[in-house]
Structures are given as C-alpha cells and as structure tokens.
What does this fold into?
Amino acid sequence: MSEDLVGKVAIVTGGASGIGDATCRLLARHGASVVVADIQDDLGARVAREIGPLAWFHKLDVAVEAEWEALLAAVLARHGRLDILVNNAGISGGTNSVEDFTVELWDRTHAINLDGVFLGCKHAIGAMKTTSVRKPEGGGAIVNISSIAGLIGSAGPFAYTASKGAVRLLTKSVAAWCAQERNGIRCNSVHPGGIDTPIFNPLWQMVGHEAGKNFIGSRHPIGHMGEPGDIAEAVLYLASDRSKFVTGSELVADGGITSGVQRRTLFAAP
Ligand SMILES: NC(=O)c1ccc[n+]([C@@H]2O[C@H](COP(=O)([O-])OP(=O)(O)OC[C@H]3O[C@@H](n4cnc5c(N)ncnc54)[C@H](O)[C@@H]3O)[C@@H](O)[C@H]2O)c1
It folds into this structure.
C-alpha cells in the first residue's frame, strides 16, 4: 500500500455507506486522516471506528450551509488543514418520469445531489486556501461523485439525471475558478455506472439482490455491476498528487456502459 496521502486530511460526505464507506477506508489505508460525514450517525460512527484512529465521524446534512460551516470549523480546529473533499452524498430521488415528478421531490433531490456539492466546494475552497499557506505543496483536491446519469439522459430517474448533469459542469466551473485564482486546488468529477450499494435497496426489495444485480450487470458491456471499491480507486487517483495536472476532468468508471451501443443489442435478431 502506498503512503500517498500520509499527513493529508480528507472529508468524505455520505461516508457511512456504499461508495463513501469504501472511499473512507481506502483513503485511510493510504495514510489520510478521514472525516466520515453523513446524516446516518450509527453507520457513520461504525465506519470511523472500524478504520481506527485515523478516522472520526461528524454528522452532516450536506444540504444545510450552517452544517458545512460547523464541519469545516471542527476540521480546522482538530487538524489545522484540509486537503481533500469528496462530495459523494447523494440520493436516487425516485424513478419517476418528467410527467410524474413532484416539485417537492425535485427540490429535495437537487438540495442533496447538487446544492450539497456546491456548498461543499464553496466551503472547502475557503478552508483549503487558508490552510494551504502552511503547506509546502499548497492547494487541495475536490472530487465530486456524479454518475453516468450526468453524461446521458434517461426517461427514468428524472431529477437525479438533471442534478448529476449539473454536478458535471459545476465541477468544471470550480476547476476553472481555482485555476484562475492559482490557489492550487483541483476539482474533478467521477461518473460511476451501476455499483452494488444500498442506493439500490428499493430494487433489491422488489426483485431480490442476486436477480437485480444480474439484471443491472447485464446492461453493462463488461457483464457485471461494479463494486464500491472500484469507484474508491478512481477517487484515490484524483485525490492524490498523482493527478496533479488533472483538473476539470471527468473520470468515467462504468463497465463500458457509455462507450457506445452494444453490438449484440444493435445487431441482435428481433
Ligand atoms: N451506486 C451506484 O450505482 C451509483 C452510480 C452512480 C453514481 N452514484 C453516486 O454515488 C454516490 C454514493 O452513492 P451510493 O451508491 O454509495 O449510495 P448509498 O445510499 O450507499 O450512500 C449514500 C450515502 O449518502 C448519505 N446521504 C444521503 N443524504 C445525505 C445528506 N443530506 N447529507 C449527508 N449524507 C447524506 C446516505 O446516508 C448514505 O450514507 C451518490 O452521489 C450516488 O448518486 C452511485
């Protein structure tokens, strides 16, 4: 295991479950101090406990600006610096179509998936800037978890797709701003395909975990769903100095699903 992140401090939102859980564990294995930030107290505290002394849990609702302010104050009081923010918290927002969607669900989905990322970037940049003056390497890394739903449209999870598409360009705009400011902060997005996490629990409850997993996996050219650790590895690259020339980019980790129409789909006999 490399020690790429030794001495660095990372916040991972939605760190109590799925991709966030795997990311917290991987960043800590590479030496980072990790703040597991989530609305789920019990699960978040357990992830931090299992990681050990490098991790601690902080309750955060990403949609509430005052909670971001409190989190950043706590991180700076404890560590005196912030190097990495992974804006991972998100909800599926339901599978309704544009015609069925309620304004309430639209607003809630955007409050978490989009406003939460905006607020994280806004407050992390401030914290990274003020703490980076004490760091010889300067700057920091922000990684925003979008989705393949941020790259291609879909009839189904309507507000989710809109919110994830917005995260893609929010990321590039934050990257452009930070580059212009020469503050050494990079910002990139990750676009996972189907990853086996509790976000699919409603589907697993309907059709069973194995059947659901096989069905979604069969939609991926690679033939199976991804694991949370697959996305954590992508985050690790963008969070570490190995990607020091990479900013405003989008890293797709989707088992090939956005690479093109599958040959067997296109040419299959009817
Ligand atoms: N699993 C997939 O197939 C997939 C694909 C593409 C993108 N993503 C994205 O990856 C991210 C992580 O999703 P996951 O699949 O690990 O799902 P998950 O449900 O396992 O984890 C999401 C976490 O976000 C937390 N969360 C929700 N609302 C929050 C809030 N207001 N404030 C703080 N935390 C909150 C939850 O408590 C949970 O711990 C999400 O942004 C999701 O949209 C997932």
